Amino acid sequence: MNANKRLEIFKRLRAENPHPTTELEYTTPFELLIAVLLSAQATDVSVNKATKRLYPVANTPQKIFDLGIDGLIPFIQTIGLYRTKAKNTIETCRIILEQHGGEVPRTREALEALPGVGRKTANVVLNTAFGEPTIAVDTHIFRVSNRTGIAPGKNVDIVEEKLLKFVPNEFKLDAHHWLILHGRYTCIARTPKCWNCMIADLCEFKQKTPLPDKV
């Protein structure tokens, strides 16, 4: 895919959604960090349901740490892998309290040192909480990048590297959100809605889905 096509794609995505953001519900960088940590292999909807119960009771590192693993589990047990996530969340709170003065660290290295926080989670926090032009590659963004030809790659690291290289600078801050939403609602996994896609004429996916027959 050439640079002109990429530019037009992101122009259209921006025109459709000028101020995109995550669908996870949060009010502070810490709430976002915990929500993203809980969202691994889970839907944003399921995480939001859990945090709506949790955050009115405990939404700071100290308050969640004080719950302990057994106290946290009842709030998040509807989410997959909740036992592991509870353990990682409590340990993350401990490290934030002991090593970072109760504040979410603002460097990739410090974020990735937290239990359960990998590169993708760190990128989301850096981008969404702190306004850095990082691009977190999840399954949706990996699929969209490869299917459309925007930034094809065999693994998430290659796709991230290509996106950072190819996405025009003016769009980098919001690219993560546009691509994930496009993958979640239009360029879906099994049968992409090519017939209802604003960038279909620019997309290099060959087996485009035709308009479904009306019942």
Q: Quick recap of the structure?
A:
With 215 residues, this protein is an all-alpha fold.
Question: What does it look like?
Answer:
This protein has helices spanning 3-16, 29-38, 44-54, 61-76, 82-99, 108-112, 119-129, 139-148, 156-166, 172-185. With 215 residues, it is mainly α. The longest helix is centred in the middle third of the chain and has 18 residues, at 82-99. The radius of gyration is 19 Å and the shape is elongated. GO terms for molecular function: 4 iron, 4 sulfur cluster binding; class I DNA-(apurinic or apyrimidinic site) endonuclease activity; DNA binding; DNA N-glycosylase activity; metal ion binding.
Q: Which features would summarize this protein structure in a list?
A:
single chain, 215 residues, mainly alpha, 0% strand
Q: Using the alpha-carbon principal axes, give the shape.
A: elongated
State Rg.
19 Å
By DSSP (H or I, 4+ residues per run), the number of helices equals: 10
Q: Give a count of the beta strands, DSSP E runs of length 2 or more.
A: 0
**Estimated share of beta-strand residues:** under 5%
What is the succession of H and E elements?
HHHHHHHHHH
Structural class: mainly alpha
**Biggest sheet overview:** none
Which oligomerization state do the chains in this entry correspond to?
A: single chain
Distance between the termini: 36 Å
Extract low-pLDDT stretches: none
Helix % is 55-70%
* Average pLDDT figure: 95
